[in-house]
Amino acid sequence: MRKGIATVSISGTLAAKLEAIAAAHFDSVELFDADVVASPCRPEDIARRCAELGLAIDLFQPLRDVVGLTPEVFPDRLRFARAKFELMERLGATRALLCSAVHPASVDDSQLTAEQLGIVGDVAAEHGFTLAYEALAWGTHVNRFHQTRAIVDLVDLPNVGVAVDTFHMLARGDGAEALAGLDGDRIAFVQIADAHRLSMDVLEWSRHHRCFPGQGALDVESVVGAAVEAGYRGPLSLEVFSDIVREANPRDTARDAMRSLLHLEEQLRRRWEQPSDGRTLAEGVDRPGRPRVELFDPPPAPQLPGVGHVEIAVTPGDPSMLQLFSRLGFTAVSPQGPDTDGIGRAARTVLRNGEATVVLDARSDLELRRSAAGQRPHVAAVAVDGDTDSALCARAHAFNLPVSETREPEGRVDATRSPAGVEVRLGSPCPRMDVPAPGRWGPLDHLGIAVDTDRSDAEVSFHRTLIGLRPGPVSEFIDPAGRLRSRVLEPEAGALRVVLNIAVHGAGHPTWIGVNQLAYACTDLLRQAESLAASGAPVLPVPDSYYDDLAARLDPPPELLARLRRLNVLYDRDERGGELLHLYTPLVGGRFYIELLERRGGYSGFGAANTPVRLASQAATPWL
Amino acid sequence: MRKGIATVSISGTLAAKLEAIAAAHFDSVELFDADVVASPCRPEDIARRCAELGLAIDLFQPLRDVVGLTPEVFPDRLRFARAKFELMERLGATRALLCSAVHPASVDDSQLTAEQLGIVGDVAAEHGFTLAYEALAWGTHVNRFHQTRAIVDLVDLPNVGVAVDTFHMLARGDGAEALAGLDGDRIAFVQIADAHRLSMDVLEWSRHHRCFPGQGALDVESVVGAAVEAGYRGPLSLEVFSDIVREANPRDTARDAMRSLLHLEEQLRRRWEQPSDGRTLAEGVDRPGRPRVELFDPPPAPQLPGVGHVEIAVTPGDPSMLQLFSRLGFTAVSPQGPDTDGIGRAARTVLRNGEATVVLDARSDLELRRSAAGQRPHVAAVAVDGDTDSALCARAHAFNLPVSETREPEGRVDATRSPAGVEVRLGSPCPRMDVPAPGRWGPLDHLGIAVDTDRSDAEVSFHRTLIGLRPGPVSEFIDPAGRLRSRVLEPEAGALRVVLNIAVHGAGHPTWIGVNQLAYACTDLLRQAESLAASGAPVLPVPDSYYDDLAARLDPPPELLARLRRLNVLYDRDERGGELLHLYTPLVGGRFYIELLERRGGYSGFGAANTPVRLASQAATPWL
C-alpha cells in the first residue's frame, strides 16, 4: 500500500526531514503545520521541494480546536481554518486532519459539533479538500473513536471522514472492534503509531513515548487490518512523536520507520493469506469495486532461529581467552598447523563444550574483514541458524538492510549489522560441527546485547523484522553506575532469545555497545560449578549477604543454600516452583561476560531478582 | 536538626555512597537493604565503616510486605522480618522502616493489620528496635497517611510509630493537615523528598522523578514543619530516587542534597521566627519537655536581586563583539588609553545602552583569573546586585559553595560558580555606572542559562539557595536538533529572572552549557527595531509563514502585522490582552544570543509560542 510518514516523526529542519523521508523511499508525507511555520521556505517552495523528491503531500495536520466549540468562539476558529486552507492551497495539499477540541470553550454536544464540522466541511469542499476528523485521546469531550464516527455520520458529507489513529484508539482501549460495520469510504486517513506500555497521563505518553509499529506494545496490526478490511485503500502513514526520534539522526529514523511499515504489511499478509488452506491475499482481503490490496512480500523469517556459534576477536599472540575457555571446559576442535590456505585458518580456533561453540579469531585484519569495531577481546559476530537459512540473506536485502559478503575458511559468509553494531551472520555454516566435542554445556540460552537508550527501539526493529523475534516488556534495575533496563526478544518458536540491555550511565561511565552476555544452558549446574571450581575457572564472587537475604526471602533447604554459597551460584524460584540456578564470570575486558544456567521445572525468566547483585559484584571485581 | 540521607539517594557502590555522604557532612544514613545485600562487605564491616566516617545508621529500610497479609502468608513474612532483624543486629541499626503491603495476599483489614504489626512490634521490642510504618502511595489497601496513623494508634506500642514521608503523602494529596493533632512521639521517622509535578502512575513517578526539596513542586516545607510542630525531634532524612541521581557523581549529589536540607531549615526558621514581631525561633516552635529545635541560620538572600552587568570574554584583537554591540546601540564608557595599572584595564571595555551594561574582556589570562571556560566569545560572568550585596558572599560560604577572590580594575571580586559553570559575582560594584549612557535599553529582563538535563535540578538548587529564586513549572519545545525544556526562576521581589534551558540533543549536536541568552527590556520595541534596522544590526530573520500563522491565530491589526513582518519582530498575546513584542540576534559563535523585548499590559510570560520558530531560525542562520 502507499506509505507515508508525518514530518513530526523525524528530527531536523523541514528540508532535512524531507530529504531523509525521500531517501527511505516513502511515497508521501503528512506536513506538520509547525514545520511549515518555522521553515524559512515559502509554502510554494516546500511544495516544489516535495515534488522534486517524489513525495506527495497526503495530509496537512493538525487543525486544532476548530469544531465542538461554543457559538461565541466558533466564528474566530472558522476564520482560522479558512486561513489554513489558504496555506493548503499554496502547499497543494488537499486533505487536512482536524482533531477534537481541547479548547476551554469546547462543548459536550455532538449535534452542534456536527453542525460546525459540516460548515467547515462545506468550506473545505469549495477548495476540493477532504477533512479527517480525529478523536484526540485527551480531547475534552470527544476522545473516543465511536464519537467521531457518530459525528461524521451526522455530518454526512463525502469530503468529511474519520481519522483512524492507532495510538489514540488503542491508548483509550479501542481496538479493531471499534471499526466494525464501518464503510471504508468513511475513513479519510490512517495514522499509525505504536507505543511503549506506560502508566502515565495519555498526553505525556503520546508526546514522548510513541514508537514505530512493532517496537511497542500496542496491537497496531489489528486496527490497521480492520481499516483495510473495511475498504480503506489510502496511505498507511506513520505519526510518531517521541523523545528518541526527536534526537536521532533523521536518515536512520526514516529507514527504521520504513522497515516497520514493511514488516506491518508482511504481518497483514500473513493474516489474510493462508497458504496452508490455499487462500491467497486477494481471497483474504480484496473486495469487489475496491482497488486491489498490494502488500510487501519478503522471504520469510527463519522458523526455528538459534545461534550456531559466536566469534570473539582476540589479540594475536595473547593466550588469555584460550585459557579462559579451556578453564570453562571448552576444547579446541579446529585443525592445528600452519596457515595453508591464505585466509587465516590457523589464526581461528574453534572451541566446543557440548553444544556450545565459540570461535576465537586472532587475525589482525579482522576489523577490516568484518567491520567489527572495538578493543579486543570482544564478541565480533553471531551466526544465526534456522531452517530457512538460505532465505535470511534475501530477507535482509528485502528490508533494505546492508549485507556484506566475505570469504572465510568455512566458505562464503553473508552478514548484516544491527544498530548496536552486532554482526549477524546469515545462514553461514557452523564451523567444525562434524567433530564430536566433550563437555556438557548446552546451546546458547540467550544472548545479551548492550544498546544505547536512543537506539533500543531500532535494535528491537532489527531483530523483529529480520529474524522474527518479538519484544516483551521492559524490566528495570539499579546499577551502581546508573540504571539498567532490559527487554527480552523471543521467537514464536526456536531457541534464539536476545536480551537487550539498555544501560544509562552518568558521565565518566562509558558504556560498551554490542554483545555483552553469552548465556549457555546446562542440565546439571551444580556439577558444572564443582568442576569449574576444580579447574580454577574464574567464577564471579557472590557476597555472603546475598545468601542471608536468599534465606530470608525464599528459604531454600539448608544443604542447597550451603552448596550455592560455596559455589557462588545464584538462585531464583518462580511462583509455580520453577527454579533457576546460575553463575557468571567477571567481565571480560569490561565488554562481556559468560553465564551458565540451569532451568528447572519450567522456569522461564532470567533471574531478574539477582541482577542488582550481579551488577554490583561485576563492578567490584577486576576484569579478566 | 540532625540530617540524614538514604543510601538509595546516591549512586555508586555502598562504599562510595558512604564516603560521599560523609564528605557532605551528613550525620546519618538510612541503609537500603539491597545496598547491604549487594555489598561485598559483611554487615559488621559496613557498621564499622559507618562509624569510622562518623555516620550513624538511623534507619534500616525497607521491610516490605510484612503486615496486612492473609493469615496464611503472614507467618512466612514474620520469619522474613526476624531474619532481617538479625541483619539489623549485625549492622547495629535500631530503627526499621516497614511499609504497607503491595503483596497479592494483602488484605483490606485495619484490625488484622494492626494485630500483625503488634506481633512484629513485639519481636522488634525484644531487640530494642523501633518500627516506622509507612503508607506507600501505591500500597494495595494502605496508601494514605491517615490509615497508618489509625493502625499505629490501634497497635499502641511505644516502639511502633508512623513514618512521615513527604513524597508518599503529598503525591496522594495529604499535606500538613494530615498531621493535625498528632503527638510527635508517634512519628518514628521523617523522610523527605520533593518531586517534579508529573501526571503519571505514582509508582513510576516515585521511582524516577523524585528530587531534593526545593527542586520540585511539592510543598515539602509544610509537611516537615507540621512534624516538627507536632514535637518530632528525630532526623530529617532525604530519600530521593531518580534517574538523575542514579547517574550523577555521588559527591556532587551528596553536596546538593545537604544544601537542600540546609535551605529547608532556613525556610522553616523563617516560618517560626518573626523578627518583625520580635518572635524568636524558640517562641515559634519550641515546646516544654521537648529538645530545642536548632535550625541553620545563614546570612539572608538578597531582597531585590538583579543583574548589574554581564562580562563577555572576547578574543584579543578581534573587534567583532565591539562592532556587534555598537550596532545594537551600545557605547563604550570605559576610560581609553594604555594599560597603566597592570591589571588589564585597557583590555576591558565597558559598554552601555541605557540601563544595560556589558563588559567585553579581552585579557588573555581571563580563564586563569576567572576559571572561565570555553572558546571565545562567551558570557564569562554575571554580577548579581541586590540590597544585601555584602552578605551574599557570606551566604555562599554558609552553603558550602566555593568562593573565589580576584582583584579586578573595579576592586576585589568575590565569585562563585553554578553547576552549569556560570560565574556569579557576588556584590561586586557595577563598573562605570557613574558615566551617563545614551540609549534606551532597560536592564536585563532575564538571563538564559543552558544546562544539562542531569544537572538541571542542581542548577535550580544553586539559584534557589544562594539568591532565593523560586522555580516555576517546566515548558517544553521541539528543537530541530532535539528537545528543549525550560524552567523559569524568579525572586519573590526583584528583577533577576533566570530561564534554565535544558537542551536534550542527539549525538552530533553538542550542547553549549552556560549563559546562552541575554534578554533586555525596553519600552519602545518597534522604535528600537527601526533603529536596529537602520544601523544594520544583525536581527534574526523570521520566516514569512510565521506572520501568516500569527494572522490565523491572533489576528493582530494589519498595520501592526505588516510592521512586525518588516522588522522581524515576534509577537504574543496572553488571555488578558497583555502583549509581548520581541526580537533576537542570531547565535553568537553558537554560544549565546541577545533578545530585546517589550512587555505591554502586564504580559508576564516569555513568548513560548514563538520559541519553535526562534529555534528553527537560529538553526538555519549563520552564527555571528
TrEMBL record, chains A, B:
<comment type="similarity">
    <text>Belongs to the bacterial two-domain DSD family.</text>
</comment>
<dbReference type="Pfam" id="PF01261">
    <property type="entry name" value="AP_endonuc_2"/>
</dbReference>
<feature type="compositionally biased region" description="Basic and acidic residues">
    <location>
        <begin position="406"/>
        <end position="415"/>
    </location>
</feature>
<dbReference type="InterPro" id="IPR037523">
    <property type="entry name" value="VOC_core"/>
</dbReference>
<dbReference type="GO" id="GO:0046279">
    <property type="term" value="P:3,4-dihydroxybenzoate biosynthetic process"/>
</dbReference>
<feature type="binding site">
    <location>
        <position position="134"/>
    </location>
    <ligand>
        <name>a divalent metal cation</name>
    </ligand>
</feature>
<feature type="binding site">
    <location>
        <position position="165"/>
    </location>
    <ligand>
        <name>a divalent metal cation</name>
    </ligand>
</feature>
<dbReference type="GO" id="GO:0046565">
    <property type="term" value="F:3-dehydroshikimate dehydratase activity"/>
</dbReference>
<feature type="domain" description="VOC">
    <location>
        <begin position="443"/>
        <end position="586"/>
    </location>
</feature>
<dbReference type="GO" id="GO:0046872">
    <property type="term" value="F:metal ion binding"/>
</dbReference>
<comment type="pathway">
    <text>Aromatic compound metabolism; 3,4-dihydroxybenzoate biosynthesis.</text>
</comment>
<keyword id="KW-0119">Carbohydrate metabolism</keyword>
<dbReference type="InterPro" id="IPR013022">
    <property type="entry name" value="Xyl_isomerase-like_TIM-brl"/>
</dbReference>
<keyword id="KW-0456">Lyase</keyword>
<comment type="function">
    <text>Catalyzes the conversion of 3-dehydroshikimate to protocatechuate (3,4-dihydroxybenzoate), a common intermediate of quinate and shikimate degradation pathways.</text>
</comment>
<dbReference type="InterPro" id="IPR036237">
    <property type="entry name" value="Xyl_isomerase-like_sf"/>
</dbReference>
<feature type="binding site">
    <location>
        <position position="239"/>
    </location>
    <ligand>
        <name>a divalent metal cation</name>
    </ligand>
</feature>
<dbReference type="InterPro" id="IPR050312">
    <property type="entry name" value="IolE/XylAMocC-like"/>
</dbReference>
<feature type="region of interest" description="Disordered">
    <location>
        <begin position="406"/>
        <end position="434"/>
    </location>
</feature>
<keyword id="KW-0479">Metal-binding</keyword>
<feature type="binding site">
    <location>
        <position position="191"/>
    </location>
    <ligand>
        <name>a divalent metal cation</name>
    </ligand>
</feature>
<keyword id="KW-0413">Isomerase</keyword>
<protein>
    <recommendedName>
        <fullName>3-dehydroshikimate dehydratase</fullName>
        <ecNumber>4.2.1.118</ecNumber>
    </recommendedName>
</protein>
<dbReference type="InterPro" id="IPR043700">
    <property type="entry name" value="DSD"/>
</dbReference>
<dbReference type="InterPro" id="IPR029068">
    <property type="entry name" value="Glyas_Bleomycin-R_OHBP_Dase"/>
</dbReference>
<dbReference type="GO" id="GO:0016853">
    <property type="term" value="F:isomerase activity"/>
</dbReference>
